[in-house]
């Protein structure tokens, strides 16, 4: 039996004035699935994320999170969502724990539950000992860990990651990639990961290739290799984006 | 690992619906979270606190002292006797603290939006109007703290109001702080980049402050320019200053109260529209 759908995007289009950023984009993401959203710069990945997080209004098409329409049932839908944005969104002048408590308050958690969850998530990422340090004192990799911990505090069904490993050194990057993949198995979490780094893909991952606002491929790694008649993901990606990828 | 993998992922919509009490508790916790974050930031950013105080104190100690001899002030309500210029200017400087604080909040909203931390607030499962109102309350709370510290220093400088006045101004500071904060919020929904904030200084803060009753009474302005006095009269900042001025002397200025309240409601509604993704300017900003 297939896992339930965590995210459903249906016929989604979006334009900035004259420029079309997304053109009839449709796909589903199921729980326990790690889906990598690949696309060169300007492919529409950030626009898609802004629409899923309701920062932009969905005018054409439909987005559902765990069956909740993002436009009609915004709050129920957002309660199911954990996000790690491309830019650091932590408050640099506050400590790790203050940042996390702020998030738990926004999600209506009581102090006891919040402390439990904070400890749980930080321990899993080996950051609990550093909870009283100011975010400014942490390196990029550790800040990212805190952001991932924060995104999981309210137990979302879907985790959105917008190029979370950009600017990190190789060990930090690999640790995050490994950890997020582990979450899909152990927590049955659905993950949508925007990236342009092909080495972040695992063989069991799902791929969505976005190019110039359109879905060029949507399937497992094997399926994408098959339709592009290639042996390597980077070749498949090159074929799908017609060499626009730099 | 967590207690039960994927435990609460797919509860039915019915079970997800919160009871009114639980929902209220969520709102309360979120509001308190936003306010305490702002207070923590305020405590950790000492420079911000000091600069917020230095500005009105320079006006009080330098500008007002210099103008004391040049500016004669007749007896006008709420004052029952001749007053020194420092006494007249004090409510105006209180307004100045709140005006700058409102704009500072606006600046931090633009900064947060550019840096991305605003997104964390905007993607939490609460209505945007509530989040904006909480943010506004947090900023107003900070400005009230600044005002009371300023009043304590002014008291040491022999600027005394009746003791009840120090209590009476609390609700008026709340309203004036909310009104000026809502204006800042509204402006932040228009400002696309941090660099554009200088324009706000030139086109909003300075005209609003100088074209008001903060520094000179209306009748004094009327002597030199009818137009200026009219502009000052309709300036919501003037009304906020008058509301504070009367409250500081234990009096209630109904006209100023209604005007300030109306301005708050207008600015707040416009700001909420500005931050609404389906109606406002959010769709025009950034992305790609």
Mean of all residue-level pLDDT scores of chain A: 89
CATH superfamily name of the largest domain in chain A? P-loop containing nucleotide triphosphate hydrolases
Number of domain units of chain A: 2
Tally of contiguous helical segments of chain A: 8
Number of beta strands of chain A = 10
| Shape call of chain A | globular
Query: Alpha-carbon distance between the termini of chain B?
Result: 36 Å
Would you report the number of β strands of chain B?
Answer: 0
Main β sheet profile of chain B: none
Largest sheet properties of chain A: 6 strands, mixed
State which percent range the strand residues of chain B make up.
Answer: under 5%
* Oligomer state of the chains in this structure: heterodimer
Q: Spell out the helices and strands of chain A N to C.
A: EEEHEEHEHHHEHEEEHH
Low-confidence stretches of chain B: 1-16, 283-288
Q: Characterize the overall form of chain B.
A: globular
The CATH C-level name of the largest domain in chain A is Alpha Beta
- Number of helical segments of chain B? 12
Describe the protein.
The complex is a heterodimer of chains A (246) and B (288). The model of chain A has no long low-confidence stretch (mean pLDDT 89). Chain A has 2 domains: 129 residues, Rossmann fold (3-Layer(aba) Sandwich); 75 residues, no CATH class. Chain A is globular and about 50 Å long. In chain A, helix 7 crosses helix 8. Chain A has 8 helices and 10 strands. In chain A, the strands form 2 sheets. A 6-stranded mixed beta sheet of chain A has the order 6-7-8-3-9-10, with helices on both faces. Chain A has a 4-stranded antiparallel beta sheet with strand order 2-1-4-5. Chain A is α/β, with parallel strands linked by helices and 246 residues long. The termini of chain A are far apart. By secondary structure, chain B is an all-alpha fold. Chain B has one domain. Helices cover 74% and strands 0% of the residues of chain B. Chain B has 12 helices and no strands. Chain B is globular. Chain B starts with 12 loop residues before the first helix and ends in a 13-residue tail after the last helix. Chains A and B meet through helix 1, helix 2 and helix 3 of A and helix 2 and helix 5 of B.
């Amino acid at each position: 039996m297939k896992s339930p759908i965590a995210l459903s995007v249906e016929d989604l289009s979006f334009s900035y004035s004259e420029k079309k950023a997304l053109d009839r984009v449709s796909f589903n993401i199921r729980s326990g699935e790690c889906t990598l959203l690949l696309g060169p710069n300007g492919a529409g990945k950030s626009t898609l994320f802004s629409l899923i997080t309701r920062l932009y209004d969905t005018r054409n098409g439909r987005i559902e999170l765990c069956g909740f329409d993002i436009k009609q049932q915004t709050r129920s839908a957002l309660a199911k969502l954990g996000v790690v944005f491309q830019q650091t969104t932590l408050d640099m002048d506050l400590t790790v724990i203050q940042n996390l408590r702020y998030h738990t308050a926004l999600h209506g958690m009581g102090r006891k539950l919040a402390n439990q969850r904070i400890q749980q998530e930080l321990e899993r990422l080996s950051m609990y000992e550093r909870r009283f340090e100011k975010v400014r004192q942490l390196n990029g990799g550790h800040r990212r860990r805190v952001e991932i911990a924060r995104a999981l505090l309210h137990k979302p069904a879907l985790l959105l990651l917008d190029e979370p490993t950009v600017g990190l050194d190789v060990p930090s990057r690999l640790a995050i990639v490994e950890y997020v993949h582990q979450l899909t198995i152990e927590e049955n979490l659905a993950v949508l990961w925007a990236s342009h780094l092909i080495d972040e893909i695992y063989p069991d991952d799902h791929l969505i290739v976005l190019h110039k606002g359109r879905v060029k491929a949507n399937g497992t790694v094997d399926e994408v290799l098959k339709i592009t008649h290639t042996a390597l993901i980077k070749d498949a990606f090159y074929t799908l984006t017609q060499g626009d990828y730099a | 690992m967590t207690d039960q993998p994927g435990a609460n992922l797919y509860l039915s919509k019915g079970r997800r619906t919160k009871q009114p009490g639980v929902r209220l508790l969520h709102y309360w916790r979120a509001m308190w979270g936003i306010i305490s974050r702002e207070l923590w930031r305020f405590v950790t950013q000492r420079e911000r606190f000091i600069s917020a105080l230095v500005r009105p104190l320079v006006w009080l100690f330098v500008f007002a002292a210099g103008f004391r001899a040049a500016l004669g002030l007749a007896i006008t309500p709420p004052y029952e006797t001749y007053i020194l210029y420092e006494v007249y200017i004090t409510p105006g400087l209180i307004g100045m603290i709140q005006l700058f604080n409102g704009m500072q909040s606006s600046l931090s909203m633009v900064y947060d939006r550019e840096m991305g931390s605003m997104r964390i607030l905007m993607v939490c499962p609460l209505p945007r109007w509530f989040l904006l109102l909480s943010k506004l309350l947090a900023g107003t709370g900070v400005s009230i703290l600044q005002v009371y510290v300023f009043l304590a220093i002014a008291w040491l400088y022999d600027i005394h109001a009746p003791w009840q006045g120090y209590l009476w101004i609390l609700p008026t500071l709340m309203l004036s702080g909310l009104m000026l904060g809502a204006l800042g919020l509204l402006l932040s929904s228009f400002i696309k980049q941090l660099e554009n904030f200088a324009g706000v200084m030139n086109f909003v803060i300075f005209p609003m402050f100088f074209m008001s009753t903060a520094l000179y009474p209306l009748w004094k302005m009327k002597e030199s320019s009818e137009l200026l006095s009219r502009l000052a009269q309709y300036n919501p900042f003037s009304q906020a200053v008058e509301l504070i001025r009367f409250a500081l002397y234990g009096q209630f200025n109904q006209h100023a109260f209604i005007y300030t309240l109306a301005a708050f409601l207008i600015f707040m509604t416009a700001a909420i529209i500005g931050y609404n993704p389906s109606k406002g300017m959010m769709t025009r900003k950034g992305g790609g």
